């Protein structure tokens, strides 16, 4: 798939493995399918009217050159499932994210990883458990994975960094900002210490009730 096509499909936010297979079988390629995209095609793919309308509006206003420039300015890399460097672990889940944006060291995903997540309202006991378990995991050569939420997720990242480990964060929003904002400095520390920030969402995606469950399947897959 052409890079411009891939970025455009990502911007539209509805492409899945099943839908991509349908489009390829009908139009020959996703590049060709993009030039035929209209409401009728979107409804055939199972999109609701509201989703179809939103996708076509985003398509009409999208400037792929400006978007590519924005990615470069933010030092954000982009992958699709068609790329050979797409993470092998995510290919194995039932609904792999068709696109990935990332900052940092993608090769960490080839290492043994362990996800540690938990409540946003971290108790003193929860904090002690993180400080007790994470150093041993790091010494055993594991890369920690979390969602950078307040509470346990952020604490896992902090302790991993403090003991010299590497950590991966899957985010439920676009990479042009960090949510919650109070973890912006922590995200910077993760990158400065050789970690990885990862998202399937285009840059302008804000956190929502559907983005976090989607993010969670990535954490589980890693």
Which helices and strands, and how do they pair?
Blueprint lengths: L2 H10 L4 H11 L2 H6 L3 H6 L4 H13 L2 H10 L3 E4 L7 H4 L7 E6 L8 E3 L8 H16 L3 E4 L5 H11 L4 E4 L13 H9 L3 E4 L11 H11 L1
Parallel strand pairs: 3-4, 4-5, 5-6
Antiparallel strand pairs: 1-2, 2-6
Helix pairs in contact: 8-9
Protein model, in words:
This protein is an alpha/beta fold and 222 residues long. 48% of the residues lie in helices and 11% in strands. It contains eleven helices and six strands. The protein has helices at residues 3-12, 17-27, 30-35, 39-44, 49-61, 64-73, 88-91, 124-139, 152-162, 184-192, 211-221; strands spanning 77-80, 99-104, 113-115, 143-146, 167-170, 196-199. The longest helix is centred in the middle third of the chain and has 16 residues, at 124-139. It is elongated.
User: How many DSSP H or I helices?
Assistant: 11
Enumerate the spans where pLDDT stays under 50 for 5 or more consecutive residues. Answer: none
* Helix-strand makeup class: alpha/beta
User: What's the N-to-C terminus distance?
Assistant: 25 Å
Strand order of the largest sheet: 1-2-6-5-4-3
Helix content: 40-55%
Q: Radius of gyration, Cα only, in angstroms?
A: 18 Å
Rough outline: elongated
Number of strands: 6
The succession of helices and strands, N to C, reads HHHHHHEHEEHEHEHEH
Which strand-content bin applies to the residues? 5-15%
Q: Average the pLDDT over all residues and give the rounded result.
A: 94
Biggest sheet, open or closed, and with what strands and sense?
6 strands, mixed
